[in-house]
Amino acid sequence: MSYQMAEDLLVRRGVTLTSIAEIVYILQSAYYPDLKEEECLASVKSVLNKREVQYTLMTGIALDELAEKGILPQPLQAVMEADESLYGADETLALGITGVYGMIGLTGFGYLDKIKLGIIGKLNDDEGRIHVFLDDLVAGIAAAASARIAHRHEGARVYPHVTGTE
Predict the structure, then answer these.
(1) Cβ atoms of residues 48 and 20 within 8 Å
(2) Residues 19-28: pLDDT tens digits?
(3) Cis before 75? omega within 30
């Protein structure tokens, strides 16, 4: 697996890196008014460069595609077709991506999973295809890229080191 393969998988399923970067920008621009969309895109690309993210993406998309072909074993096939709300494996897989950048990634994912911002909502509402995993994986990538900016941004506060005993 490689970065290019991961990007190609996303594009094949109708997701551009720019559409993910737009979500990252919405999440972080309120905190960093000078944030540029290019920085958000670079952060998305950085997340996609991580091998564990690539493997997670490959796994989730493969399951969505197999479900679209109707070749998963039952009852999993029926669960995927219904996008069963109690299934949870889709969120569990996506949480592996958010964990790369800590708790802020987790909270960002929860927010995105709830409001279905941008391309996430389009994937979730697409009646013609199965995106049980992909909508959550995109939310995970966006949350991780957003957390990466929060951790690395020059506007992040630095607290002085306290020495001595208290």
Answers:
(1) no
(2) 999 999 999 9
(3) yes
